[in-house]
What does this fold into?
Amino acid sequence: MFTIDLTLKYSPLPLSVQRKEQEGAEALYQQITAAMRGEPTLLELTCEKDDGKKIAVFSDQISGVILSQKTGAAAAGRAPGFFTPTDDRT
It folds into this structure.
């Protein structure tokens, strides 16, 4: 399962949709990044994991997009978005 996370301006929580195949996820990622570069438009996204899930967002409100593969325990144990591991030892 591949997850596409959208980070929106002025919103701390990402929006996510899933694709079953890598090709579909890559195509959606390219569609979103192309919309971010162009004129503002309404993007309507659906999720292949949850058939009833639909998201509509204006492309000029997207500040970041993440494509990642979710497998097994890794999918449940990590929050969506970017992260940097830190070493708290001083």
